[in-house]
Each structure stands twice: as C-alpha cells, then as structure tokens.
Amino acid sequence: MRSYQRIFRPDRRIYQIDGRRLPVPGGVPLTWLGWAAATVAAVLMLDARSLGLALLLSVGVAIAAAGQGGWRAAGIAAAVAFAGAIGAGVALGVLDWPLRLVVLPIAVATLAGHVSPDGRPAHRYLLSWVGRRLRPERRSAERPLPPGGQSELWGPWVWVAADEHTPRLRRGRVHGPAEVEFAQPVMVTDRGRGRRRHIARPVSTTRGGRGQEADVVELGDDRMLEIRP
What we know:
Elements (H helix, E strand, L loop, with lengths): L4 H4 L4 E2 L1 E2 L2 E2 L6 E2 H18 L3 H44 L2 H18 L7 H13 L3 E3 L2 E3 L26 E4 L2 E14 L5 E6 L9 E8 L4 E4 L2
Parallel strand pairs: 9-11
Antiparallel strand pairs: 1-4, 2-3, 5-6, 7-11, 8-9, 8-10
C-alpha cells in the first residue's frame, strides 16, 4: 500500500445492482461515479452559457483566491474564471450530445481516478497547485521561498567534527561555485593540477606558516575546497 491511511479509507466499489452483476471487471468505484456525475452536472450548467452562472462562479473563485493571495489575486482569478466559463460553454456547444454527456464524463472520471500526481488525488493536487500559485508568501522547511523567477543564495553549515561513525574528526568538502565563510581564520593552501584543489586548516595546526590566511574562500565552477581539522 502507498500509505497506511488507505486502511481507514477503503476503496468502495459497486459490483452488482439488484442481484445483477455489472459487466465491469473489478466493479465500478464510487469515486468514479462521483466524478462522472459531477462532470455531467458541470457540462449541463456550462452548456447553458448563462452570464449569471459565470458571474456567480467568478465571485466564488474570487472569494477563495482572496484568502490565498489578496485582492490582486482575487481579481485575476475572477477574470480567468469568468472567461473560462464562457469559453467552456461555447466549446461544449460545438460538441454533439454523446460526446458531451457520455464520452467526456467517462474520460474525466477515468483520468481523475487513475492519475495521482505527487501521490495525491487529482483534485487535491490541483487545488494545492492553484493555491500555491496564488499565495504570495510560500514557505518550505519553515523558511520563506523567493518569488517565482528569482533566485536566493543559500548558506548551509559545514561541520567538521566527530560523529557516531568514528571518534576522529572528518573532512568536509565543498565544490564550487560557492563562497565559504569561516567562523575563525584558516590557512588555505593550493594543490592539484592548475591549483584547483584548496586545503583549509586551522591556523593553530598549520606548521611553517605555509599558505594564505583567509576568512572567506571563493570557489569557481571547477574548484574544490577540502576543510581539514
């Protein structure tokens, strides 16, 4: 099972009606019937191409979007919902009734029942995706994320200390491009071909004063810094 939550939410199916077995292998899931019925209802309402329905839908979407991204997001969402409702009604009017009331509900219900992006149902994933796009402030690991299209520098800590695997201090390596800032001055020496490998040691453990004392080390794309205890 993908998750233990499925134990408490079993997949309910219909295998027979009035003692007559349905000619569907494995039965018909109740969620499939729910998606199909909801699609038929939505098709009938959108096919009417009612301005009142489009306005009501846009108002509902605006209220939901206002709680996620403010009034600006609410205005954009309302405009998209109104245009989408009118456009969907025009597109549905071109299709014949078997396609609108039979083929389309079956396709939507089948797709929604089988597709599970990110391990979640399709409707939950869609709602979270829309909410994440409308919300101006997003957080991950208790940190705010930058807006879309903008990059932010991330400075992780590199610990050079003993751990549960060995009582000896272990080395830490940082591959460029990066800018490494030390809490205390270190002695940096260059090694390897083209001096692409840098060794950093505490000043107190460096003999003979070889190298260059520094607080910050900048690394290029093909450079590597090895921090030794």
